[in-house]
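lol forgot to send this yesterday, sorry. struct tokens for the thing we talked abt
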């Protein structure tokens, strides 16, 4: 399994750079005639040519100093009008407050977004998820960019941005998070993706924002960090029946079910759902915890409330439609010592007569004061204290996710996750998630992996940001 359990083949940055050099040599031998390359090679060459025009570090570039790449610009330098669109198509600003527009995005992503190569699973976004993901504080209607067929009005492409305040080490960056880039499967030869990226860049630049954070399973120029997905089965029998998890050699189904069975009830005294009264104290805890990482999102109070208490404001929302689950641990003195959250993003199961949906949970943000008394988070005592606490907390998170009807719980090798993944029976996935900054050079940030992409508990990760 890879990102969210979807199957794909992912090259490392080194492999990607080597493959690119091979393409350049082939092109040189063919006197620059791109038509003599295979269809896949032509696509890779076009992608390379696009990214070589963008303010991103190249694969072989050595960063000597951190900072913006393109510096001398103002919103007045940016065109007011959208980029020219391919014939027969037109730009469409998506109003996510409009039921019809939201339905169009819902249909496009649910039918065309990331799908595994065997066509077995596909992300199944809900309207509740879109409202949570696209309408964070400061969101702008014109940052939800669509492309429609002129003759029919059908939405065939989409990209979005939301404002985020990033910290890259000690540097504070006003930025956006780019997400949900999707082009209809039948139109991927039209080269709409580069146009979408340029247009969302134009719209963001008009608001005097010049940096962006984005992730991809594929390798682009040039990753800031690489993390790996891990998966903790909650309902192993169902995962096996739908082809998500194979039966390991020399194991029985009964043994595997027993291995992953969880208690029905949590055991930590003082563990309870996050409430509005907890916002200030929990935000302070999270902010202090996040300072240990090199790449983080800085939350305002309003943003914290949106991201971690969104469902709490919708009392009539059915439990099965909940998106975000947030919990705090309160000690005997009434102090919040720990916090964790996870969100639900199910898969559609495309070719199974019994099951139509797979419940998938993703570890989101968390914080603990377990090692605050130590100056060095990596020393033996600090590591031991935090590991002990996180193993207990995340075991409770798995129980709560299981009780919420989720079938698998996913976590990256980011944050301090490597301290508990093995203990809590998270299995390594095939998928890598590459982190990128647009128009910003930075030294590489540790993603918690060895060179062979196995988990490295001794290094741990310095990626603190979590993207949807």
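and heres what i got for the seq, position by position
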């Amino acid at each position: 399994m890879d990102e969210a359990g979807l199957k794909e083949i992912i090259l490392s940055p080194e492999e990607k750079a080597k493959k690119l050099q091979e393409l350049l040599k082939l092109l040189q031998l063919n006197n620059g005639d791109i038509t003599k390359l295979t269809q896949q090679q032509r696509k890779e060459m076009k992608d390379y040519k696009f990214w070589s025009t963008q303010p991103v570090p190249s694969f072989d570039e050595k960063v000597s100093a951190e900072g913006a790449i393109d510096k001398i610009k103002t919103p007045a330098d940016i065109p007011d009008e959208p980029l020219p669109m391919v014939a027969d198509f037109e730009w469409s600003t998506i109003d996510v407050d409009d039921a019809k527009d939201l339905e169009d995005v819902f249909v496009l992503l649910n039918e065309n977004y990331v799908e595994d190569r065997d066509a077995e699973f596909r992300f199944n976004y809900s309207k509740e998820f879109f409202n949570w993901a696209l309408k964070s504080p400061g969101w702008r209607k014109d940052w939800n960019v669509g492309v429609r067929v002129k003759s029919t009005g059908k939405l065939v492409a989409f990209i979005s941005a939301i404002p985020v305040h990033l910290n890259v080490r000690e540097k504070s960056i006003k930025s956006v998070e780019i997400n949900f880039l999707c082009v209809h499967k039948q139109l991927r030869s039209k080269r709409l993706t580069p146009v979408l990226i340029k247009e969302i860049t134009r719209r963001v630049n008009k608001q005097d924002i010049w940096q962006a954070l984005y992730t991809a399973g594929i390798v682009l120029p040039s990753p800031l960090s690489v993390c790996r997905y891990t998966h903790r089965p909650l309902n192993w029998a169902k995962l096996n029946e739908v082809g998500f998890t194979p039966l390991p050699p020399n194991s029985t189904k009964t043994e595997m079910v027993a291995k992953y069975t969880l208690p029905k009830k949590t055991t930590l005294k003082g563990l309870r759902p996050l409430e509005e009264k907890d916002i200030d104290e929990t935000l302070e805890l999270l902010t202090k915890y996040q300072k240990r990482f090199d790449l983080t999102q800085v939350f305002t109070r309003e943003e914290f409330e949106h991201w971690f208490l969104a469902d709490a404001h919708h009392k009539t929302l059915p439990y099965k439609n909940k998106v975000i689950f947030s919990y705090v641990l309160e000690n005997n003195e009434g102090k919040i010592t720990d916090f964790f959250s996870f969100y639900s993003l199910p898969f559609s199961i495309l070719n199974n007569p019994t099951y139509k949906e797979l419940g998938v949970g993703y570890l989101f943000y968390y914080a603990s004061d377990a090692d605050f008394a130590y100056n060095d988070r990596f020393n033996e005592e600090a590591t031991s204290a935090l590991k002990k606490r996180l193993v207990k907390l995340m075991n409770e998170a798995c129980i709560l996710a299981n009780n919420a009807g989720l079938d698998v719980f996913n976590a990256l090798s980011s944050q301090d996750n490597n301290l508990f993944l093995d203990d809590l029976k998270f299995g390594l996935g095939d998928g890598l998630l590459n982190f990128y900054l647009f128009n910003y050079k930075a030294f590489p940030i540790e993603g918690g992996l060895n060179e062979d992409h196995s988990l490295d508990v001794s290094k741990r990760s310095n990626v603190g940001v979590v993207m949807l």
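Confidence is low (pLDDT under 50) at residues 1-11, 25-35. anyway ping me if u want another try
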